[in-house]
Structure formats: C-alpha cells, structure tokens
Specification:
Elements (H helix, E strand, L loop, with lengths): L15 H7 L7 H6 L13 H17 L3 E6 L6 H13 L6 E5 L7 H4 L8 H5 L5 H4 L1 E3 L3 E4 L8 H6 L1 H14 L3 E5 L8 H5 L5 E7 L5 H11 L4 E7 L12
Parallel strand pairs: 1-5, 1-6, 2-4, 2-5, 6-7
Antiparallel strand pairs: 3-4
Helix pairs in contact: 3-4
Length: 249
C-alpha cells in the first residue's frame, strides 16, 4: 500500500510517516491486559470477535462518510466504556493499513492508562491547552496504535474541552500524524456536561450500555443530548467484564 492509498479520509499527510515513526514507544504487557480483559490485541481469546465486528462496521461507516473522530461514552458510570475503547483501539490496530489514536478525554476520572497497564503518563491537559506538542505527548504501540493518556484529573474539564485550544490540538494531531481513526474515551454523558462540551469536535459517537445498568430511558436521554452528532451504535456490554469505574464525586 502506498502512502497515497493509505487512510480512510483522503490519504496520508506529507511527513506523517516520519512523525509517526519518531513517537516514543510504549509497551503493553500481556498479563496486565489479560487481567483487565483487554483481549483484542490478538486472536487467542475468542472474546476478541465482538470487537472485530464492531471495528469492521465502524470503519465502513467512517470510510463512507469521510469521518475520523469517534467519541465513546455511556449514560452512567460502570458500563465499561474504557474497556470498549481499549479493545476497539487494539482491534483497529491489527488492521495493517489503519492507524488509530486513542485519547483519554475522561478528564474527571482518567482510566485508559490503568486499563492498558501504563504508568507515568503525562497530563493531557497540557496537550489540549497547547503547552505540550502532540509529538511529545503521544506514545506509539507497535506500528499502528498511538496513545494519548492522562495522568491526573482536570479541575475544569468541560471548560477545557470547549476551548478553541482543544479543537486546535485535535487538528494538530490529525495534520501531523494522519490517523485513520481517533477514538476518544469520554466521561458518562449524563453524569456531567463534558460530553456536551466536546460534541462539536467529534464526527460521531458510540454509546456503551451496561447490562443491568443502563435503562431505555437513559439511552433516549443520551440520544436527545447528542442532538445532530451521529450515533454510530449502542453497544451492550456486561460491565463486570471490564474495569469498573467509580462514580463521580
């Protein structure tokens, strides 16, 4: 595949190959992933199959519409949205022709680093505010996956997500690295106004519903909240299969 053939939405930007290769590397430890039920990095666990199905359907929808940015949220805490984000990112990364960047934009309770067994990550607040360049914040896992993790909660999350600086940071990531997909792990949609604040920066959403947790009324409330932002689908997840997130204070 040539550089011009790569990408779901218009090919690879000049210089992105070198920029991607120059990212500092992160290593995912299989035992830590297995402990958190992050199974989609390989084919040894049959639980990877639903994530591969989700990946294929999502990539097809994005390709047809020229979209890249997908937010992953839930109605309430404990539904496994971070679990889905991590597994979906690893599933996409198994596609040789696809680059995926996973960003932890749950600024109140960041948990993507923990789910992936990563320590010592930087503050994503500095990336969104323009104090840190994407090349200094992102960490590459293998040839096709990059992580934008977060080490600490942010005091003013909705305000930060709504600032023009966040839009500029996402644009810099796209321009510099030409990812095929950017997956954003978001907070629960009905727990705070953060998802509402980030909606204008996204192309589409995936909603994770927790079995025995999420109600039809909550799903309808989320659909109303999302407004004109397209909902790619509702994913039914058994929350006990993934990391259980605490409720917001």
């Amino acid at each position: 595949m040539t550089m011009m053939e790569r990408g779901l939405a218009g090919g690879t930007a000049p210089g992105s190959e070198a920029a991607w290769a120059a990212l500092a590397e992160a290593v995912l430890e299989p035992r830590r992933l297995a402990r958190n039920r992050i199974v989609a990095g390989g084919r040894s666990d049959p639980a990877h199959v639903p994530f591969d199905l989700l990946r294929t359907r999502m990539l097809r929808a994005l390709r047809e519409r020229g979209w890249r940015r997908v937010g992953i949220t839930s109605a309430s805490p404990g539904c496994g949205k971070t679990f889905v984000t991590a597994n979906l990112a690893l599933s996409v990364a198994r596609r040789e022709s696809c680059r995926v960047i996973a960003l932890d934009l749950d600024l109140r309770i960041p948990s993507l680093a923990k789910a992936l067994g990563q320590r010592g990550s930087a503050r994503i607040e500095d990336l969104l505010a323009g104090r840190t360049a994407p090349a200094d914040h992102l960490r590459r896992v293998g040839p096709n996956l990059a992580l934008g993790l977060n080490a600490a909660p942010v005091g003013n999350p909705a305000e930060l997500l709504e600032e023009p600086g966040t839009a500029a940071a996402l644009a810099r990531i796209e321009a510099g690295f030409a990812p095929d997909v950017i997956l954003c792990d978001l907070p629960p949609a009905l727990a705070c106004d953060d998802v509402l604040a980030i909606l204008p920066r996204l192309d589409a959403l995936l909603l994770v519903a927790g079995a025995g947790i999420t109600t039809p009324t909550q799903i309808r409330s989320c659909e109303k909240l999302f407004g004109e932002t397209p909902l790619l689908g509702v994913i039914l997840n058994r929350a006990e299969d993934g990391p259980v997130e605490p409720y917001y204070a």
